[in-house]
User: Fold these one by one.
Assistant:
Number 1:
Amino acid sequence: MKKIFKVDAIVTCNPQQEVIEDAFIAIDGDEILDLGPYKKRPRASSFKVEERPGCVMTPGLYNLHTHLAMVLLRGIAEDLNLQTWLFDYIFPAEKKWVDREFVKIGTELAVCESLLNGVVSVADMYFYQEEVGKILDKAGMLGVLGVSYFDHGAMDSKSLDQSLKHAVKLSNEYKKHDRIQVALAPHAPYTCSPETLRKTAQTAKDHKIPVMIHLSETEHEQKEIQAKYGKTPADYILEAGLAEAPYLLTAHSVWLSPSDIQKLNKKHVTAILNPQCNSKLSSGFAPITEMRDQGLRIALGTDGAASNNRLDILSEIQFLAKLYRLKTGDLEGFSGPDLFDCATIRAAEAIGWGDTRGSLEPGKKADFILFDFAKAHLTPLSDVYSHLIYTAQSTDVEDVYVNGQCLMKKRKIKVMNVDRVMNRARSFFHKMKSDLKMKPATRVA
Ligand SMILES: [Zn+2]
């Protein structure tokens, strides 16, 4: 179906970072035909026109590092250092409770939350990815299914070889899928041996499967890997061959040295920053100035909801804008358009979709969101990027489109029954709660 949207402004995220005011976008099915000032719109009667006064359109947002199903563990362990949080609370809870049902219920809930926040694409890193794939597919979203594992395998496999085989099989199933890809996701340098990473690299190379991994998240990891192997975590994964994958996403990338950044600086490698999670767990501040100076691509992720605690990429951009300014003293070097690009076009490039998605340009897929700017806190519309980076809230996102299909209209999700999903999540949590080791933020008198 051919359709024209009339909006107050379109943020294109094209190479010129153009913003078009009083704009139209014309789509035909899943593709963008044209966009520009409304007075230059196509006049053919075959176009159905949807007028959205007060709305601003941007490309849909990408969350390139998360563990979707962990929304079920949100809030169970607070105010702890990362090692205690992970090894004493999260890993034991996962060992006991994560099964196919956990992943299905958690992922559905996370998909609802993501859509409500204007997120169209997720790079998930977890277990039972065949279930995640079915849910993302049904919801019409975009995504990368990161098949996660450790040296011994994972919750959904008995050994490393079984995990790798599973990833290859799933990757073959999604080879021709338009919206979903599969990646190998070894957990981290401190939980994966050289042999595990070498086997990952070989599988990635043989079957052309991308790789995602946590990298240099904490100083503790940096010291541990240095003591154990005599090299930095980045050298450790690169020497195992992980950059031989079609693309590599390194989540966190906080404790990278200038030489690490230089070695990671390849067209198909992207540092996925998680500023809110890294602040909350006091992991550190990524060397963004050096990354940008050298040209290493940056995109954004929330990490799981147990450590963020939201799956809200707009707030991630906004937090990073302020944190960057505070930590570097550089008020001019990382502009609003460059920040917003990290969650749109740079993110699409990171997962190999830069030619077809991530910006609003003729010939690209119709993936976009509409913000309602007819609100007190967004009036008057002085500058679109200023409002997006410093003022808008994810609750201002009204509509979400992927491939020209409407997934959310006026904040009503069309592809999921949110009430039913929340009820299932509540029941599952109720079942877990009596047996869950918790460290709440609440002080009990
Ligand atoms: Zn993570």
Note: The pocket of zinc ion is lined by residues 65, 67, 214, 251, 303-304 (CB under 6 Å).
Number 2:
Amino acid sequence: LTVTQGDTVNLTLVDDHDPTNTNYNPGGDGHTIHLHGLDLASQYDGDPMTAPGGQGVLQGEHYTYHFVAQWPGTFWYHCHVEAAEHIQMGMYGALIIRPRGEPSRAYPATPTFQKEYTLVLSEMESVGHRIDADHLQKGGPDMNWSTYHANYFLINGKAWPDTMRDPQDHLEATVGQTVLVRLINAGYLVHSMHSHGFHFLVVGSDGRKLATPYSKDTLDVAPGERYELLFHLDQVGRYMFHDHLEQNTTNNGAYPGGMITMISVNNPDGSNPVPLQQLMNG
Ligand SMILES: [Cu+2]
């Protein structure tokens, strides 16, 4: 979701088919939308304990959340019913609020960017997914998500090398450009994001412009946190951008995988000194 500061937004959650509504879980769990970072009043906050009626939106129901986009920045939204389970199953997304009249800045008076990427970080535990599916569909024991042990590590829902096959995940620019990268941690582990080739300028976090931007090459992003990073790409080549918890650069234990993408900085004619094929064979 992308809106502009000052916009009035109505967001309707329609629970027309609830996959948690099975013979073994009659009625289903229901769902909500928690707009993380918008600081809304209880009736729009999406916490089922404080929502009107004290529960989520059940199958056949709908509910409209309402807000005025007050602060520019990077936010996200997620279901808050059985949150560990429902977020793990993918019930989340990014929410970007652009400063009014300044669409090429993250915040008023921060440097302009020429390109922009939003990277939603997450992980998944495949064993837990199987247990949960069997619980709902076959009446097996329920999954206890406090035993969470992730074996896949994802950027925008994809693991290396699939991150290179989607232009939303593979950061690509022309030398000399400034690129804004918005990081959102929708997972349950800290991700220590490190860039090769460049320091980046951290200009904001959690929907607030920083009073003093700072330069980093590695940045811890805790669960729920967001950051805006500006990369000034002043040298051509291809540079890894990855989780420096190296155990998270694997796919079910196999390296390379997981939370890796590339910053490809091309010459003005579009060429790059590092052949793309060389990476994909690695
Ligand atoms: Cu839900």
Note: The chain is about 10% helix and 35% strand.
